[in-house]
Amino acid sequence: MSRNPQIESVCQRLRRDFFESIKHIYNPSILEQGYHLGKNRKGKEQKMPLASISIGVVWLKGMSRITEDELAEMAAMAKSESKKALNGYFQLTAE
Questions:
Q1: How many of the other CB atoms lie within 10 Å of CB of 57?
Q2: C-beta of residue 90 within 8 angstroms of C-beta of residue 56
Q3: φ/ψ (deg, to 5) at 56
Q4: Is the dihedral of CA 55, 57, 4, 85 positive or negative?
Q5: Where are the beta strands (DSSP E) in the chain?
Q6: Taking the CB of residue 90, how many other CB atoms lie within 10 A of it?
Q7: 34 torsion bin: left (phi>0), alpha (psi -120 to 50), beta (else)
Q8: Hey, how many other C-beta atoms are within 10 angstroms of the C-beta on 11?
Q9: d(CA 30, CA 89)
Q10: How far lies 14's CA from each of 21, 22, 29, in Å?
């Protein structure tokens, strides 16, 4: 499966910009500890993760002939895989 380096670069920049922008939301001690305290749906206080971003991309390489359903399935898969990826983004290629 081929990868588009321009897409990778854009994803890296988007994530970097996102994480830079959320620094203004949290106070420094919360950023340092990596979580904040909040109440879950049952009203119990627990550690909550900080805001994050995951990016799933489907690259339609060349004259890809895929249906809308196939594209939607690929987009859902890319998004799901991006949440598992250490770098926070995942790229699928439709050739």
A1: 20
A2: yes
A3: -110, 130
A4: positive
A5: 35-39, 45-49, 55-60, 89-94
A6: 20
A7: left
A8: 22
A9: 24
A10: 10, 12, 24
What does the alpha-carbon distance between residue 90 and residue 11 come to, in Å, rounded to a whole number?
A: 9
Please report where in the chains the tokens 């987009």 appear, as a residue. 75
Structure tokens at 59: 């690259």
Tell me the two tokens of residue 11. 């994803």
pTM: 0.79
Helix (H, G, I), strand (E, B) or coil at 23: coil
C-alpha–C-alpha distance, residues 94 and 85, integer Å: 20
Q: Residue 70, CB half-sphere, CA atoms under 13 Å: how many?
A: 10
Counting Cα atoms < 13 Å in the Cβ hemisphere of 18 gives 13
pLDDT per residue as tens, the chain (95 positions): 567 889 999 999 999 999 999 999 999 999 999 999 999 999 999 999 999 999 999 998 876 788 899 999 999 999 999 999 999 999 998 87
- Extents of the domains making up the chain: 5-94
